[in-house]
């Protein structure tokens, strides 16, 4: 059994060393001042994650959760990436009775890159295992004061989740609740969700996006949503006049 105190210190020390001699500014476009980075480049990060697999395999479930909590709590993006690798191994731990623990972890991500990774690789599995209960949690995130939870409440419904066709109505409702959100990274999350929904429900979602343009909703949302619409069809949408 590993000593997770020592393991965490080792992880932090090695990440610091990997980033020490590089001019790369890690996650330089992460705007949250709480988000820290060592500067570890992607290839080095991939090799480091692979090196941790034997140690992580030996950890018990509760140790994995506790180590993930400490890694996220560090504030460092690279440590949060390591935590994701741990949490991917134990999604079944997060039953509805433990959603308070889950929310506390997500509140510690504080950056779009980590929110997007966690929703795609980890939260998707929690959603699949506890659909009704997790949707109710997402509804609370949708109106949370924390912009990262608001972003998570819509980007969870992108990619394979959008393709499944199972969540269109709740995804659209969560997007609709955020169309006037002032935060740029919430707006891009809404636009991304609408774009992916449009791939599988084109007529309905395109009509909705056209209506948003007529209402003068932020172009950050509508232009992102229209990324897959090309040529004359795109021009016809963009030519829509704003209604008084």
Overall description:
- The protein is an all-alpha fold and 244 residues long.
- It is built from 14 helices and no strands.
- The N and C termini lie far apart (67 Å).
- 36% of the residues are buried.
- The model has no long low-confidence stretch (mean pLDDT 94).
Labels describing this entry:
mainly alpha; 0% strand; 244 residues
Distance between the termini: 67 Å
Number of helices: 14
Strand content: under 5%
* Number of strand segments: 0
- 3D shape: globular
Order of helices and strands: HHHHHHHHHHHHHH
Mean pLDDT: 94
Give the proportion of residues in helices. 55-70%
Topology:
Layout lengths: L3 H17 L21 H16 L3 H13 L3 H11 L11 H9 L4 H18 L1 H12 L4 H9 L3 H6 L3 H10 L6 H15 L3 H13 L4 H7 L5 H8 L6
Helix pairs in contact: 1-3, 3-4, 4-6, 6-7, 6-8, 7-8, 8-11, 10-11, 11-12, 11-13
Give a quick summary of the entry:
This protein is an all-alpha fold and 244 residues long.
């Amino acid at each position: 059994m590993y000593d997770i105190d020592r393991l965490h210190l080792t992880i932090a020390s090695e990440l610091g060393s990997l980033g020490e001699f590089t001019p790369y500014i890690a996650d330089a476009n992460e705007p949250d001042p709480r988000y820290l980075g060592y500067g570890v480049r992607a290839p080095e990060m991939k090799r480091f994650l692979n090196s941790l697999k034997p140690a992580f395999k030996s950890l018990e479930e509760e140790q994995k959760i506790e180590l993930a909590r400490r890694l996220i709590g560090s504030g460092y993006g690279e440590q949060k990436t390591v935590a994701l690798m741990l949490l991917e191994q134990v999604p079944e731990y997060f039953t509805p009775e433990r959603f308070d623990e889950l929310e506390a972890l997500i509140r510690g991500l504080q950056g779009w890159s980590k929110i997007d990774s966690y929703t795609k690789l980890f939260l998707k599995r929690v959603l699949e295992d506890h659909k009704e209960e997790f949707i109710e949690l997402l509804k609370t995130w949708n109106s949370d004061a924390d912009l990262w939870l608001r972003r998570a409440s819509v980007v969870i419904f992108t990619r394979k989740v959008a393709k499944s066709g199972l969540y269109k109505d709740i995804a659209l409702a969560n997007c609709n609740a955020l169309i006037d959100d002032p935060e740029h990274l919430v707006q891009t999350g809404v636009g991304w969700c609408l774009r992916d929904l449009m791939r599988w429900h084109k007529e309905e979602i395109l009509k909705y996006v056209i209506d948003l343009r007529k209402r003068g909703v932020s172009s950050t949302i509508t232009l992102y949503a229209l990324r897959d619409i090309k040529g004359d069809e795109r021009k016809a949408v963009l030519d829509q006049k704003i209604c008084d």
